[in-house]
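HOLO CASE FILE
Compound: heme C
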Amino acid sequence: MNMNTKCTLFLLGTAALTLTWAGVARVTAQELDPETKARVERFEKGPATIDVSKYPDGIKDNYEVFSTKCAQCHKLSRPINSDYARPDEWSRYIKRMMNKPGSGISSTEGKKIYEFLTYDSSIRKKAMLDEKLAKATPEDKAAVETKIKEVHDKYDKK
Ligand code: HEC
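Model generated. Tokens follow.
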């Protein structure tokens, strides 16, 4: 093997390694489509905490679970300022997050987070929720209201 061949082989090897690493990095990074990326960036610009001082004690406890578990991969401001407000939107999305590798959210914790977000949305996001329900069918609206009532009945002081 002459010097030129060795040199070419070395360069080829380096190029192959570089390509491999670029591939690994692309798969590892959380690649979001441009629309989702813009949306989550907008959410994350908003407040990163919720004033829970007027909420019942049990909901305050659930806020602790939410603020620990849902800030592991992204800012808590992402769910806080998101477009979700309906109980079914929350249960679907919490399940989606629970299924992400390494989320470490148990079903008990998932339920507490659901109850927190349903309760909180019924108060803090009331305008958004009313707007969504105005577009719903009467049956759909009634089903959503039943789910919200269930959470309030469980936590509000009688
Ligand atoms: C294991 C990492 C991980 C954890 C834990 C996690 N998320 Fe996420 N979350 C992501 C990723 C990745 C995305 C963006 C892609 C997607 O939507 O799947 C995201 C996106 C979101 C969005 C934006 C959805 C949109 O597209 O508008 C919301 C809202 C959200 N998460 C809420 C939560 C809530 C609530 C929890 C706690 C139950 C949580 N996340 C926990 C990884 C995580």
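CASE NOTES: DSSP finds eight helices and no strands in the chain. Confidence is low (pLDDT under 50) at residues 24-29.
CLOSED: yes
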